[in-house]
Design a protein that fits this description.
168 residues, 6 helices, alpha+beta, two-stranded antiparallel sheet
Length: 168
């Protein structure tokens, strides 16, 4: 099963160093039965895009929680990996139809690609991180700022490009 795992650049560097993304359990996003039912008219590609978008939103929250890591702020990261079906459990929370729990760490060898914000998105993502608390409280202006970050498409990187990505 393809799972989209929210991440940060420092966590991605640790993944490369350790040879796996962990520790488990990991929260990810995937094409779950609940997501398929909710998005009845979408094909697999569209559903995977929805899961990727949900993971990018979760990455924004990881950035907000890791503001002490200077290299982590400003770029959302999503790791796309192939995980055995038996290691993935769908969320019971219907509010997050694509959310899953991955039982074990994900080996680097199972990573299919990495999706990362372009450097042009840094200002909008940084502003969105700062606006998250107010957006969560229902502030429409703050929600607009968060939506501004989500307007940026994540760039696709092959696994062999990860060292170059981390070096930039």
């Amino acid at each position: 099963m393809r799972v989209y795992l929210p991440c940060t650049l420092p966590a991605l560097a640790r993944m490369v160093q350790d040879g796996e993304l962990g520790p488990a359990p990991l929260t990810g996003y995937a094409v779950t039965p609940a997501l398929i039912e909710w998005y009845a008219s979408g094909d697999t590609e569209e559903l995977e895009y929805v899961a990727l978008t949900e993971a990018a939103r979760a990455s924004l929250r990881l950035l907000a929680a890791a503001t002490g890591e200077p290299s982590g702020v400003g770029r959302r990261v999503v790791v796309a990996a192939e995980v055995a079906d038996h290691a993935v459990q769908a969320s019971a929370d219907l509010g997050e139809k694509g959310r899953v729990r991955v039982a074990g760490p994900v080996p680097l060898a199972k990573v299919a690609a990495v999706h990362v914000d372009d450097e042009y998105a840094v200002a909008d993502v940084t502003a969105a991180v700062a606006a998250l608390p107010d957006a969560d409280k229902g502030d429409d202006d703050a929600r607009f700022v968060v939506d501004g970050a989500e307007a940026h498409e994540l760039m696709w990187y092959a696994t062999q490009e990860i060292p170059d990505l981390l070096g930039s």
